[in-house]
Amino acid sequence: PAVKKAITEAASQYTKPEGKVFEYGTAGFRMKADLLNTVVFAVGLLASLRSKKLSGQWIGVMVTASHNPAEDNGVKLVDPMGEMLEAEWEAYATKLANAPLDKIADVYDELIKEIDVKMTNPARVVFARDTRASGSRLVGVLNAALTATEVEFVDLKYMTTPQLHYVVRCKNTLGTQYEYGEPTEQGYYEKLANSFKKVMRGVKVQGSLTVDCANGVGGPKLRELMKYLTGIDIKVVNDDVINPDALNFDCGADYVKTKQRAPPSSKAAMLDRCASLDGDADRLVYYFQDESNVFRLLDGDRIATLAASFIGDLARNAGIASKLKIGVVQTAYANGASTDYIEKVLKLPIICTNTGVKHLHHAALRFDVGVYFEANGHGTVTFSENALKVIKNTEPQSPAQQHALESLQALTDLINQAVGDALSDALLVEAILAHKGWSPKEWLGTYTDLPSRLVRVVVNDRSIFKAYDAERKLESPPGLQGTIESLQSRYNKGRSFARASGTEDAVRVYAEAASRSEADDLATRVANAVS
Ligand code: NG1
Ligand code: ZN
Hints:
Distance between the termini: 52 Å
Helix content: 25-40%
Bound molecules: 2-acetamido-2-deoxy-1-O-phosphono-alpha-D-galactopyranose, zinc ion
Catalytic activity: N-acetyl-alpha-D-glucosamine 1-phosphate = N-acetyl-D-glucosamine 6-phosphate
Oligomer: single chain
Number of strands: 19
Strand content: 15-25%
Pfam families: AMG1_II (PF21405), AMG1_III (PF21404), PGM_PMM_I (PF02878), PGM_PMM_IV (PF00408)
Family: Belongs to the phosphohexose mutase family.
Radius of gyration: 23 Å
Largest sheet: 5 strands, mixed
Number of helices: 18
Binding site for Mg(2+): 66, 278, 280, 282
Protein name: Phosphoacetylglucosamine mutase
Mean pLDDT: 97
Strand order of the largest sheet: 1-3-2-4-5
């Protein structure tokens, strides 16, 4: 009752935006920052319930809107192992976020019964935010909700999303056999730097890497990480976190992937290795200008194929290939050429899942080594308990085997297994290119992307677009799937699908085909059929 009163009192400071329905989507709640107070308050309440339900394990709350414009913000919950919030709880989050403020304590009470939370359990929450101006206000709201519900909490101030996931996992595994690292920012840098050094034994990074930080939190954090790194020359650009409007503006991973061009501010020379992060540093894409000054993108599909081929080679060299089931997880947005390359050249199994990292992550756990990336650059590699054991306990039969085993061991530390992490992924790519002795040109040469087009179509009601088969087909509206299939069959290597976006009020149409004009044409025709 005291807590209930405290919740009602704290909630009364805020006003709920009228007529707005909130939904915990693929990326948590995300919208214009001035609409978010009551949503963040609700998320604070839910974080405390989630922690109590899990016997006082630490739950993370991240305040960020990733690649969205500066005036947006968002909030999402992180589960104890650094994973996204369990799907079943998304509905509870939605319910609390939509509760009228004078009833929110009642809804909270109802949830306690519905979820069967033992309220005598302790609750622990750790939170962080990106560099958006609205972040400090929203963290204040979060603070109010956690204080009202008597939660033990830690404010980590500014962090990248993956850093927060890392800390959550560390805090919950501390002192167990699954210990993941020191639960601090410094611990994160030390872990990455030490493992990078080990992976790099005997090889050298050629040239430098220019990293566009989207003018977000990744900038200062990459600069910090660089203090710990040796043997790599990183040039940091777009790291202005003072001018609030600069965030994700004309730069960053989303800009580069969507516009298929380098940030206009880029001063990179021909064949220079460039990479872009997004606003909270969980997405990464690479690119360069080739000899004909043509922009060349190396997206998430490329990072996946590079990582899968390297780990496959290491496993063979270490003599443990038969003991590890290595696989790749993609979504329908993966370029068909990458899928072909994985199947025919790398000869690895592929799982195709729904869009959204949580789906990919879960599928990846079905492999001993699960490589998953969305085409837009969000992803990582997971290692099963069996994989970790095999890598650790195998007796090397030769110096070459020993070197391969040690490299694999270091990779398991270099890769942020909790969640896709642009900083960790960049070090992974740098290490692999160094081992292979490749410039981005050789990397690009592994296969040729099919020209593709992504179109956003605004429709009256996107909820009528119901997909199946990992979102590659539509069962509703009736007849549309047939139309799409007959259209794509007219194009050489044509493939197209439409699905309702989980983050925007629109339908996305994807099309690829053997030539640029065919891909564009197919996309236009399918978009017309959709609208
Ligand atoms: P939606 O809006 O559901 O297509 C987008 C991205 C996803 C993922 C989520 C979450 C595309 C086509 N879709 O989802 O890959 O990153 O945002 O941020 O890039
Ligand atoms: Zn992001």
